Amino acid sequence: MKILILLAHPEPESFNAAMFHTAVETLESAGHQVKTTNLYQMDFNPVYGRSNFTSVKDPDYFKIQIEEIHASQVNGFTNEINIEQEKVEWCDLMIWQFPLWRFAPPAILKGWTDRVFASGRFFKNGGYYKNGTMNGKKALLSVTTGSPEEEYTKDGFHGDIHSILRPVNRGILECVGFSVLAPEINYSVAHLSEGERHSILEKWRNRLDNIFREKEIVVGKY
């Protein structure tokens, strides 16, 4: 199978990086084809603008959707963006590895989705959700938090973690057609012992060995 793994963390020695490298090694060892996107290593620019395009539909007024549809028709995305779009279109499974910052992914990852998931290419003919262009593909969020697990329950200090992740799972991934797998969530990682980190990485390897047997979850509407 073909797998795209994204990493959005600025520290190469972070636990997120360890999760990322573990996923790459495990899946490649199992015979899968793996491509990666390491956003901070790439110094990816998350800011949307005309720099997304080599084409111009309307030079006088910048309307993103119109320019995206035009670029999709004339191959008018920059090489940087086209490469990332082709990776997403290529994969059977996409995994995002990131820390939860202020109840959301890092801005560099959100900016990647803004620039890559373009109308005319990822949104065609009004196709959304089960009619989206990524229908038949799966996606998985692998997330770390700063706070402990009990704070991410319905009655906890931060609230239900699945509700926090719903804007990504529903509004970004399912919206373009991906089937969403249960998130891999590891809590309070900065406070884990070396043994606990080793156990988590081993659990992650074991899950990835069986990842294509997993069924999608029901994310639910807002």
From TrEMBL:
GO terms for molecular function: NAD(P)H dehydrogenase (quinone) activity. It comes from Sinomicrobium pectinilyticum. One of its GO terms (cellular component) is cytosol. The keyword Magnesium does not apply. This is Flavodoxin family protein. PANTHER family: NAD P H OXIDOREDUCTASE-RELATED, NAD(P)H DEHYDROGENASE [QUINONE] 1 ISOFORM 1. Belongs to the NAD(P)H dehydrogenase (quinone) family. It comes from the Bacteria. Keywords: Oxidoreductase. Residues 1-207 form the Flavodoxin-like fold domain.
